């Protein structure tokens, strides 16, 4: 629902300039309620360009809060949008220091009551946690959406010590973002000089990220899990199960020492009032209760809510996308980890998953390099984009499967399953992928959760070692948190594979993974019903009126899989055309599109190839600019081969080009 009437009229200041101590000028948009009373301010800092990048979501959210008495400042971080400087990398200490200075500046303004909050989704959720750990005095509370506390283990770069292909897609996206010109309507005639300076400093961030394949000091910086006690302010953590960052919510609830609340719904990588799949919730009403409690001192009842409000997915067959809503219902836990949840261990027996161990034959799997295709995309965006996991029967056929008998009653699972495996391998470098599936009576297999581990990292992400070939060893693997009801008559399946393409970059050689049946277990988090579940209620989703927009060209999303039977090469082509639109209130026209093409031969992991392309065009004032980036990744036995190319254009003519090719040694990845 779009709300059009608010308690306060809203004043918009754009640009609001903030000059830092080193002379860097930072651009912001401020929405402030018109009132003689002093009000708090909530800060969001991301590099995605407030005027023409995130404007649609910003206008949905920040004016709504301002209309209810909470000022909001949307900041272009250093080197992005209309701000001075260079955006050298993500989550740098300099960015966190800038945030502390900006918070101090805003808290001292005459209209501010001295209390500041920080919020954001993804990048903005990350830096909200990072800045909270620095404890600027005016920062009293944060709301962090779709973020992480661990930059190495649970971000877009590595998972379980294995390389995520999403890293290169992300770096290509950032290559374009960094290369775009500031808005002449804001910065004036210096826009071209600023643009030229940015272009000269732009290169692929993958060169940095691939240089750190272990969990070293580079990743520890900005990972608040290194010291949860550093965060003393109040924290609300929000995410959705279809987003790849949902693990951070239960971890924060477990480890943060201060006031905290968690909400995990059915959504993908979006705010809960405007994303997909639904059902959506009145997220802004929850945020308002939070900010009024911590920044104004009102008793809004927010801290009487259950600690953990969580969506439990109901019975639904797997689909490439879910519109409009997921099946399921809300549940509540007042403690996390919850003492109510039973840790039920099942043994991996030759006959399937059983309550008692039954020693038997050694079972083996040798997955082709194409295994993993139907498991969806790391970081899927939901909505109409077909990147969710589909029926897993093809994947199950390429793995080693252990099933329960049909369930006698419905079973609710909430938390992270854990594996304790006794395995042996025939190669020193092996990736393990474990999937937990809900198997319907007709054989349909729905992915509930999964986890992966580079077995060289079985003891340490900092000091990996080769697998002991031919010698059994123990592996412990925690899968992603999830919540789901498995209906009576269904079976639970644990499927093990040693490939997970295209989510993971494959190890150099195919391998055989063996499990001694009866000597391994999976722990399931079984949740009993709770009367507290009835206390979970959200108001209907609301937003402010949208930014006035004229759609000039519609967009589309495609996922096309091609199998060349003769060569054995499988190709996955993802295309997202985001269309072309004009933001009428600021006379800016934008268009963008990206494509990701991943190919591999089932018998040759070294044939893996990723080509990702992103294009973004913006016309505003005197500037009519476009950036196009292409990144390609391949690998041989010992090295990754990374190449990238960037072109910047003004009115269709190339004004800048840059490219590089790098060979980066594989470090157990």
UniProtKB/TrEMBL annotation:
<dbReference type="Pfam" id="PF02129">
    <property type="entry name" value="Peptidase_S15"/>
</dbReference>
<dbReference type="InterPro" id="IPR013736">
    <property type="entry name" value="Xaa-Pro_dipept_C"/>
</dbReference>
<dbReference type="GO" id="GO:0008239">
    <property type="term" value="F:dipeptidyl-peptidase activity"/>
</dbReference>
<dbReference type="InterPro" id="IPR029058">
    <property type="entry name" value="AB_hydrolase_fold"/>
</dbReference>
<dbReference type="InterPro" id="IPR008979">
    <property type="entry name" value="Galactose-bd-like_sf"/>
</dbReference>
<keyword id="KW-0378">Hydrolase</keyword>
<dbReference type="InterPro" id="IPR005674">
    <property type="entry name" value="CocE/Ser_esterase"/>
</dbReference>
<protein>
    <submittedName>
        <fullName>CocE/NonD family hydrolase</fullName>
    </submittedName>
</protein>
<feature type="domain" description="Xaa-Pro dipeptidyl-peptidase C-terminal">
    <location>
        <begin position="288"/>
        <end position="546"/>
    </location>
</feature>
<dbReference type="InterPro" id="IPR050585">
    <property type="entry name" value="Xaa-Pro_dipeptidyl-ppase/CocE"/>
</dbReference>
<dbReference type="Pfam" id="PF08530">
    <property type="entry name" value="PepX_C"/>
</dbReference>
<dbReference type="InterPro" id="IPR000383">
    <property type="entry name" value="Xaa-Pro-like_dom"/>
</dbReference>
């Amino acid at each position: 629902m779009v709300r059009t009437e608010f308690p306060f009229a809203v004043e918009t200041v754009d640009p609001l300039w903030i000059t830092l101590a080193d002379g860097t000028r930072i651009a912001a948009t401020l929405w402030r309620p018109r009132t003689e009373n002093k009000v708090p301010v909530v800060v969001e800092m991301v590099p995605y360009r407030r005027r023409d990048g995130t404007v649609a979501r910003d206008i949905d959210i920040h004016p709504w809060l301002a209309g209810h008495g909470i000022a909001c400042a949307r900041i272009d971080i250093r080197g992005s949008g209309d701000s001075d400087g260079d955006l050298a990398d993500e989550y740098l200490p300099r960015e966190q220091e800038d945030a502390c200075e900006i918070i101090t500046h805003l808290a001292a303004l005459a209209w501010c009551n001295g209390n500041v909050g920080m919020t954001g989704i993804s990048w903005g959720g990350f830096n909200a946690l990072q800045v909270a750990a620095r404890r600027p005095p005016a920062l009293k509370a944060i709301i962090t959406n779709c973020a992480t506390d661990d930059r190495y283990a649970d971000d877009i770069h590595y998972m379980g010590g294995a390389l995520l292909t999403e890293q290169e897609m992300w770096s290509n996206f950032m290559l374009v973002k960094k290369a775009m010109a500031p808005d002449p309507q804001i910065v004036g005639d210096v826009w071209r000089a600023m643009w030229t300076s940015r272009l000269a400093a732009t290169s692929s961030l993958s060169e940095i990220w691939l240089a750190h394949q272990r969990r070293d000091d580079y990743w520890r910086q900005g990972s608040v899990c290194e010291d949860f006690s550093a965060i003393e302010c109040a924290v609300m953590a929000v995410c959705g199960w279809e987003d790849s960052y949902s693990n951070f919510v239960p971890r924060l609830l477990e480890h943060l020492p201060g006031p905290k609340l968690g909400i995990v719904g059915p959504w993908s990588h979006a705010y809960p009032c405007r994303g997909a799949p639904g059902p959506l919730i009145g997220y802004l009403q929850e945020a308002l209760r939070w900010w009024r409690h911590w920044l104004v001192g009102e008793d809004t009842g927010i801290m009487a809510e259950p600690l953990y409000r969580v969506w439990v997915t109901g019975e639904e067959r797997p689909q490439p996308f879910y519109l409009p809503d997921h099946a399921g219902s809300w549940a509540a836990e007042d403690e996390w980890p919850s003492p109510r949840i039973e840790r039920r261990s099942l043994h991996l027996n030759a006959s399937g998953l059983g309550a008692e161990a039954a020693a038997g034959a050694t079972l083996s799997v040798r997955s082709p390099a194409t295994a993993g295709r139907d498991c969806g995309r790391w970081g899927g965006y939901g909505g109409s984009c077909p990147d969710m996991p589909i029926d897993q029967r093809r994947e199950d056929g390429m793995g080693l499967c252990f099933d329960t008998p049909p369930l006698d009653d419905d079973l609710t699972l909430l938390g992270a399953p854990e594996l304790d495996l006794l395995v042996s391998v025939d190669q020193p470098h092996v990736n393990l992928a474990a999937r937990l599936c809900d198997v319907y009576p007709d054989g349909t297999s729905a992915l509930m959760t999964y986890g992966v581990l580079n077995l060289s990292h079985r003891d340490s992400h900092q000091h990996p070692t080769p697998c002991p070939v031919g010698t059994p060893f123990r592996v412990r693997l925690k899968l992603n948190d999830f919540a789901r009801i498995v209906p009576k008559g269904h079976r639970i399946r644990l499927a093990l594979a040693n490939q997970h393409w295209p989510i993971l970059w494959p190890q150099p050689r195919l391998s055989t993974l063996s499990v001694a049946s009866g000597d391994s277990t999976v722990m399931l988090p079984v949740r009993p019903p709770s009367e507290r579940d009835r206390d979970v209620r959200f108001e209907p989703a609301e937003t402010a009126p949208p930014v006035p927009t004229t759609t000039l060209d519609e967009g589309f999303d495609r996922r096309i899989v091609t199998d060349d039977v003769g060569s054995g090469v499988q190709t996955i082509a993802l295309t997202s055309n985001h269309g072309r639109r004009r933001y009428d209130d600021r006379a800016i026209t934008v268009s963008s599109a990206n494509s990701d093409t991943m190919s591999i031969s089932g018998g040759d992991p070294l044939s893996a190839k990723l080509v990702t392309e992103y294009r973004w065009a913006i016309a505003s004032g005197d500037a009519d600019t476009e950036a196009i980036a292409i990144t390609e990744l391949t690998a041989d036995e010992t090295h990754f081969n990374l190449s990238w190319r960037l072109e910047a254009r003004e009115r269709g003519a190339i004004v800048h080009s840059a490219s590089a090719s790098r060979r980066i040694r594989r470090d157990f990845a």
